[in-house]
Amino acid sequence: MNESVFRRPVRLAGERTIVRQLTLDDAAALVAIVRAEPEILPKTLHGVDDAEALAHWLTVAVPNGQRFGVSVHLAIADRETDTLIGFLGLFRVDAAHDTCEVGYALRRAERGRGHATEALRLACDWALRDCGLHRIELRTLTDNIASMRVAEKAGFRREGVQRGASEHRDLVMFSRLATDATGADATDGPVRLVGIGVGPGDPELVTAKAVRLLQEADVVLVPVMAPDEPGRAESVVREYTAKAERVVFALNDRGGVTEKRAAAWDGAAARVLEAFERGARTVVFATIGDPNVYSTFTYLAQSVRAGRPDVAVETVPGITAMQDLAARSGTVLAEGAESLALVPLTAGAGGFREALATCDTVVAYKFGSVAPEVTQALKDAGRLDDAVYGARLGLPGEDVGPASAIDGPVPYLSTLIVPARRTSRGGKL
Ligand SMILES: C[S@@+](CC[C@H](N)C(=O)[O-])C[C@H]1O[C@@H](n2cnc3c(N)ncnc32)[C@H](O)[C@@H]1O
């Protein structure tokens, strides 16, 4: 790293925010903060409450980073008025590895206006570009959604959870590297809509690519049935990013293309188009299982393309409910030359009966409302005892067991596997 640049006075200007050296002119604002909001002060100022000590801090201690080891304490100021509205510190600087940690705090009245994101981005761009640092770490409490959102918007990527790291509480570790692509570099090429499969419910069943895109995307949308109801994909997505925005979809509306359904697709497409209008380059839509298997993403993509044909549509595969049930129940889906049929039962058990008669392994989706018909079809085909059933896989209330135990209606999130009849090893090769 270049320590002399790091210690030199700096003034970084964004659209609304300035990040700069603290000066004696900040004394009045600093005193007001000491009185009203001491919790936002840098740690080195905790307990310093008389004017003389504050003046010393501003004129001697702050410009001379040596006093605290190598670190800088900067002012976050409002661009219009240049008044002090918060602090940003780059500390725990390790010149041997070119790493440091960043922390910031804003006055309460100034929060939620984009100052934090802008200040963080300005300071980190400067530290990584001009001061020669390679890695900046940022740690936040696991329930501090606003802070996580700020980190992601400023180009940080989530690495994982540090258990019990701060007063016995868990922290999420984020980092930004000098080599990371930032939003500013990613302005070439078409805007992208990416459908991301996040698996049936277990947050561990998500691909590394899905996690990376969830964190890098400008906007993350998740389908929900009602605005105040947490979505199924949402609970998985929230394990990896704080920026999930809900889009209301008539997810289990029956009866084909209902008016309610069509309006939901259009509304969701409008949200995506709006995000592109606001400058987003990558919008991702998270969907349970795989986005190419009975997913709402297909319809959303069609509607978005109709409104904006230049959008590049991509998908990231996800683990399907049938794969998860196979794993959890120890069932082999297909081997050798066996066929595998996946049948949705929205319109009744007719297609299911046909598949039982003609295919080796048969998987049923969407049979919540016709469970008794399914049981009867299995009995008639003599395959009830082989079949396994799984409801709410990977979610609270998961239920996996033999299909013969199904008694009455089952939840919408239910999957059934009727494995091929296998008599000997390799018999179907
Ligand atoms: C609209 S489809 C979505 C399929 C999903 N895209 C996939 O790749 O598995 C909904 C059906 O998937 C199955 N499903 C999805 N998630 C499930 C879960 N967590 N547990 C059991 N079944 C699930 C159920 O059969 C449900 O009716």
From TrEMBL:
Per its record, what are the GO molecular function terms? Answer: precorrin-2 C20-methyltransferase activity
**Gene for this protein?**
cobI
Organism's domain of life?
Bacteria
Pathway(s): Cofactor biosynthesis; adenosylcobalamin biosynthesis
Q: State what protein this is by name.
A: Precorrin-2 C(20)-methyltransferase
Task: Specify whether Ion transport is a keyword of the entry.
Answer: no
Checking SUPFAM superfamilies in the record gives: Acyl-CoA N-acyltransferases (Nat) (SSF55729), Tetrapyrrole methylase (SSF53790)
| InterPro entries per the UniProt record, alphabetical | 4pyrrol_Mease, 4pyrrol_Methylase_sf, 4pyrrole_Mease_sub1, 4pyrrole_Mease_sub2, Acyl_CoA_acyltransferase, CobI/CbiL, CobI/CbiL/CobIJ_dom, GNAT_dom
List the PANTHER family hit by this protein, alphabetically.
COBALT-PRECORRIN-2 C(20)-METHYLTRANSFERASE
Q: Does the keyword Ribonucleoprotein apply?
A: no
| Record-listed E.C. numbers | 2.1.1.130
Report the family membership.
Belongs to the precorrin methyltransferase family.
Q: What is the lineage of its organism?
A: Bacteria, Bacillati, Actinomycetota, Actinomycetes, Streptosporangiales
Report the record's Gene Ontology biological process terms: methylation
User: Keywords assigned by UniProt?
Assistant: Cobalamin biosynthesis, Methyltransferase, S-adenosyl-L-methionine, Transferase
Domain named N-acetyltransferase: residues: 17-178
Q: Which species?
A: Actinomadura gamaensis
